């Protein structure tokens, strides 16, 4: 097996790399930070190729595919992404559009390119790292929540297309709650809810992917939250999310 992991230099991506390596999976590690990737590769017990690229640019996504399409990649992990905190009209537009480019366009581009190969070969797995945010509207982090809604629904839709084709290729989407990573620091917020461990999240993600699960929500509490929210008025749910996001801003100071 060989897996390509984007956003592999830290957080969930880094831990997924370690979990897959422990299973004997060779790796291609991608992020902007080549130094961190090389340090990670040196720790792993399997061959790991390092590709340092900024995937917020479509041509770099295509370059990544061209550089690795003949390497025998049969697992794609789309993990690269970030969030930005603030009211929609106050957060810098350039930053919001960069978020869309990385969280949505890069993931879709790589999924499209590699999935065609997987489909033609009749084997392969895609793991898209989304968020429990992908089930809600998110005032104060509107672009981030919207990007995760897009990725979650795209994953579910394409997974159903493959099922109807009776394709053995699987698509899984990981939707964790808050996880202890550098995400909040980059987004400029402090989240007061209990955060999950990145390692435990990665283990759940990899196990779910190999089990062929379409939707992976690691914690029971968040699975219950997603289920129960279906029975509440959407406006009420959005107001609750706004209150939670406002607390992030207060914690930020």
Automatic annotation (TrEMBL):
<dbReference type="GO" id="GO:0016491">
    <property type="term" value="F:oxidoreductase activity"/>
</dbReference>
<dbReference type="GO" id="GO:0016020">
    <property type="term" value="C:membrane"/>
</dbReference>
<comment type="similarity">
    <text>Belongs to the short-chain dehydrogenases/reductases (SDR) family.</text>
</comment>
<dbReference type="InterPro" id="IPR002347">
    <property type="entry name" value="SDR_fam"/>
</dbReference>
<dbReference type="Pfam" id="PF00106">
    <property type="entry name" value="adh_short"/>
</dbReference>
<keyword id="KW-0560">Oxidoreductase</keyword>
<dbReference type="InterPro" id="IPR036291">
    <property type="entry name" value="NAD(P)-bd_dom_sf"/>
</dbReference>
<protein>
    <submittedName>
        <fullName>SDR family NAD(P)-dependent oxidoreductase</fullName>
    </submittedName>
</protein>
């Amino acid at each position: 097996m060989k897996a390509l992991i984007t956003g592999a230099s830290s957080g969930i991506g880094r831990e997924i790399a370690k979990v897959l390596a422990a299973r004997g999976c060779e790796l291609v590690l991608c992020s902007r930070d080549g130094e961190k990737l090389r340090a990670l590769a040196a720790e792993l017990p399997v061959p790991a190729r390092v590709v340092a690229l900024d995937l917020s640019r479509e041509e770099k996504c295509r370059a990544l595919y061209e550089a690795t399409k003949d390497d025998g990649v049969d697992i794609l992990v789309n993990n690269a992404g970030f969030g930005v905190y603030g009211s929609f009209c106050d957060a810098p537009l350039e930053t919001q559009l960069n978020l869309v480019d990385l969280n949505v366009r890069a993931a879709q581009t790589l999924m499209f390119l590699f999935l065609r190969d997987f489909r033609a070969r009749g084997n392969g797995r895609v793991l898209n790292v989304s968020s429990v945010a992908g089930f809600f509207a998110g005032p104060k982090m509107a672009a981030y929540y919207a990007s995760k809604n897009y990725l979650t629904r795209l994953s579910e839709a394409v997974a159903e297309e493959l099922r109807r084709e009776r394709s053995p290729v699987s698509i899984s989407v990981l939707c964790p709650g808050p996880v202890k990573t550098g995400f909040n620091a980059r987004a400029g917020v402090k989240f007061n809810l209990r955060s999950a461990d990145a390692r435990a999240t990665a283990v759940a993600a990899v196990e779910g992917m190999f089990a062929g699960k379409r939707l992976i929500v690691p914690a029971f509490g968040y699975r219950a939250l997603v289920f129960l929210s279906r029975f509440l008025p959407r406006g009420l749910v959005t107001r609750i999310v706004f209150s939670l996001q406002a607390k992030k801003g207060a914690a930020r100071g």
